[in-house]
Amino acid sequence: MTTTPSNPKAARVPRGFVDRTADEIRAAEAMMRTIRETYELYGFEPVETPLVEYTDALGKFLPDQDRPNEGVFSFQDDDEQWLSLRYDLTAPLARYVAENFERLAKPYRSYRAGWVFRNEKPGPGRFRQFMQFDADTVGAPSVAADAEMCMMMADTLEALGIARGQYVIRVNNRKVLDGVMEAIGLAGEENADKRLTVLRAIDKLDKIGPDGVRDLLGAGRWENPDDKSGDYTKGAGLDAAAADTVLAFVAAGAESAAATIANLAALVASGGRGSEGAGELATIGELIDAAGYGDRVRIDPSVVRGLEYYTGPVYEAELLFDVTNDEGQTVRFGSVGGGGRYDGLVGRFMKENVPATGFSIGVSRLAAALKSLGKIGGEASRGPVVVLVMDRSAIASYQAMVAELRAAGIRAEMYLGSSGMKPQMKYADRRNAPLAIIEGSNEREAGEVQIKDLDLGKELSKGIADNETWRASRPAQVTVKRADLVAEVQRMLAAAVPPASE
Asked: What does the entry list as the binding residues for L-histidine (predicted)?
């Protein structure tokens, strides 16, 4: 006997988190298989790190310094050590490499997929838990490793069905931006926070445009500038001349990589890190052109990436086709991932500096892009064959059928509820079952079973006029000898997909 609670709790998912359905999970896993195959084609191998790291392993490289808990979910263990849920997959990799440095072959090429957590204000398309898929090369100082990352990004998108011309891989170099920062007086550790504010302002260029970026470089910006409503973001406090220099850097892009690099070199003509960065971009451009990727990888000064641990080339994968957003507006889909060189991150744990570069794909965002293109998430996936329970005194017979079907590699389940035949058929339909197996007392005595073709019923209900021959050759229900159950189910499943219409 069961009782109903007098005051049941409300069932609700926490803000910023989402549940995932079976079809969403299967679509994402299929997508990640393709990503994995591409990464392995380039010689990368898997590694897995825990969801929890010591908070001090994350160091100063946290996504949000302005919140008391610095943007991460943290707690203390029994030893009063602070632990945090990882906010990305890069900081844990840096810790892993440092801890296992002597036994790893260098350069160390690895990939990993997993959940990351951000204790930030949730909003449309902004979640507190999401999945990333990363690839990194640790121990390679040459920008050839960065160029390879850009090429692998391009190959990954095409392997997933995103056609050439529907995407671009954009590349820049933080060293050039460092040269710009020096030119406007923001060099040195004492200006670290202000530099980070400048980075975040530039990173919003595609969302708020040059005027919005200028506001964030200056005093600040309202979420709705026209009526000064919504959230207010404090700016970097730059004067007009400094803001002009930063915006000139962002606008230095030209028709060709050579022209863009020349523009950037002119901005940092005094030499130092800025000139070094421009030279690295020139090398990346040469390598990209030599490998035949010049039409897909573009030097673009507007790419800065928001995290401060990047030390050299940074890159971003942007999808160029239009979609309709939540407000009904037509917008470019935008970024689905990015990364860059982070030569100082592994070295935090060691006595030596260790060069590294890597790229992270936002799995949910890329899945949404593929769905909008019709590459995944079409028809619901086929469910299991359902064996109906018509006589509960003979349940062992139904269980034997299910076992035989599973032994033959066929997804199958026995109905475990307590309802009659009609609700059981509704259940099979909701499970998207292709077939239902029916054995009543009469069929059992005759040594037979009935197999109902539920896929065919769905096709007939659509009233589709094509593929008449295919439908005519498939009776909606057949009766076969019990011994022939598995063979007939295999035959009907093989025939369940109609031929393409001409």
From this structure: 88-90, 118, 132, 136, 305, 309-310
Q: Do 238 and 217 contact (CB within 8 A), yes or no?
A: yes
DSSP per-residue codes, 314-339:
EEEEEEEEEEE-TTS-EEEEEEEEEE
Residue 490 assigned ligand-binding role: no
Task: For residue 260, say whether it is annotated as part of any ligand binding site.
Answer: no
Alpha-carbon span 135 to 45, nearest angstrom: 9
Ligand-binding annotation for 310, yes or no, is yes
User: What pLDDT, on a 0 to 100 scale, did the predictor assign at position 163?
Assistant: 93
C-alpha torsion angle, residues 198, 201, 205, 211 (rounded to 10): -100
Strand, coil or helix: 362? strand
- The C-alpha angle with vertex 150 and arms to 148 and 151, in degrees rounded to 5, equals 65
* pLDDT for residue 499: 42
- Topology classification of domain 385-494: Rossmann fold (3.40.50)
Is 399 annotated in some ligand binding site?
Answer: no
Distance CA 152, CA 359 (A): 10
For the chain, 502 residues long, the average pLDDT of each consecutive 10-residue run is 69 90 88 96 96 82 49 85 90 94 96 92 82 96 96 96 94 88 82 82 83 89 84 88 86 81 78 85 94 93 78 94 72 88 90 92 90 75 92 94 96 94 93 94 94 75 50 72 96 71 37
83 appears as a binding residue in the annotation: no
Tens digits of residue pLDDT in 110-121: 999 999 998 888
Check the annotation: does 132 bind a ligand.
yes
pLDDT at position 327: 66
- What is the value of pTM for the model shown? 0.79
Q: What is the pLDDT of residue 380?
A: 64
User: Is 305 within any annotated ligand binding site?
Assistant: yes
- Residue 252: strand, helix, or coil: coil
Q: Tell me, what's the pLDDT at 470?
A: 41
Q: Specify burial of residue 393 (Cβ count, 10 A radius: 0-12, 13-18, 19+).
A: exposed
Whose CA is closest to 317, among 332, 334, 292? Answer: 334
In this chain, the answer to whether the domains covering 22-372 and 385-494 adopt an identical fold is no
CATH topology for the 22-372 domain: BirA Bifunctional Protein; domain 2 (3.30.930)
Dist CA 176 CA 274 (whole Å) = 4
Burial of 10 (0-12, 13-18, 19+ CB in 10 A): exposed
Tokens 């309802």 label which residue? Answer: 419
Sequence ranges of the domains in the chain: 22-372, 385-494
Burial class (CB in 10 A: 0-12, 13-18, 19+), 119: buried
In angstroms, the CA 458 to CA 434 distance is: 10
Q: What is the DSSP string of 68-112?
A: TTTTS-EEE-TT--EEEE-S-SHHHHHHHHHHTGGGS-SSEEEEE
